[in-house]
Amino acid sequence: MGVAAALPASAFMAAVDSPLAPRRAESARHDYFFFDADEARFIEAACERLLPEEPSLPGALAAGVPRYLDHHLAGAWGVGEVAYRHGPWQPGTPTHAEFPKLAPAVLFRRALSGIHRDLNDRSAPGSAPGFSFEAWPARRQDAYLGLLADGGLDLDGVPSKVFFQLLLAMTVEGFFSHPRFGSTRDRVAWPMRGFPGAHAAVS
């Protein structure tokens, strides 16, 4: 387990010289505290492919899902202060997600570093290396996310399947979450479930 996983949130946030420390970045849509610019571009594109925009519904990006991930990874949950991770671990079935033994922030930072390197290796000959996932056609993005989901890559010691399962779970959670928890602008996902919100339920 990385040392950052054992630090309190305040110490983790203050460790600006650590490669695992939050890396404030900005994009056209969000101001980030955990993700750096390359990571933010990948997360925005990946979340949007997991929950793409439809004619009558916004996608993950418009709903603020990447901000939800960033908010939680930069806080106490990201450094593992609100999760039990000490075992004992019981064997599960293939349908069970593997419980991450790293703090989520450490897991994401390692996995995104591994993805960055892998995408550089996949750059077309003669093209500039970089985090170009967001510029790929949707079909190619989906194929790469499928590769991660199948566990086809080792991402700096993080199985890609573990990273993908956590990314997918947080994307869905963020899309349906309450705005006070860092996502779901204007409660855009609530009408999908027929829920008008507490303000309407008690009026």
Description:
The protein is 39% helix and 4% strand. With 203 residues, it is mainly alpha-helical. The chain has one domain (3-16, 30-83, 94-201). The strands form two sheets. Strands 1-2 form a two-stranded antiparallel ribbon. A two-stranded antiparallel ribbon has the order 3-4. Mean pLDDT is 74; it is low at 1-19.
Q: In sequence order, what are the helices and strands, one letter per element? A: HEEHHHHEEHH
How many structural units, i.e. domains? 1
Largest sheet, described in full?
2 strands, antiparallel
Strand fraction equals under 5%
Number of strands: 4
Structural class: mainly alpha
Instruction: State the separation between the terminal residues, measured CA to CA.
Output: 49 Å
Tally the helices: what do you get?
Answer: 7
Uncertain regions spanning at least 5 consecutive residues:
1-19
State the oligomer. single chain
Helix content: 25-40%
Write the layout of secondary structure elements.
Elements lengths: L8 H6 L10 E2 L4 E2 L4 H14 L14 H9 L30 H18 L16 H12 L4 E2 L2 E2 H17 L21 H4 L2
Antiparallel strand pairs: 1-2, 3-4
Helix pairs in contact: 2-5, 3-6, 5-6
Overview in brief:
39% of the residues lie in helices and 4% in strands. It has 203 residues and is mainly alpha-helical.
Features:
single chain, 203 residues, mainly alpha, two-stranded antiparallel sheet, two-stranded antiparallel ribbon, 7 helices, 4 strands, 39% helix, disordered N terminus
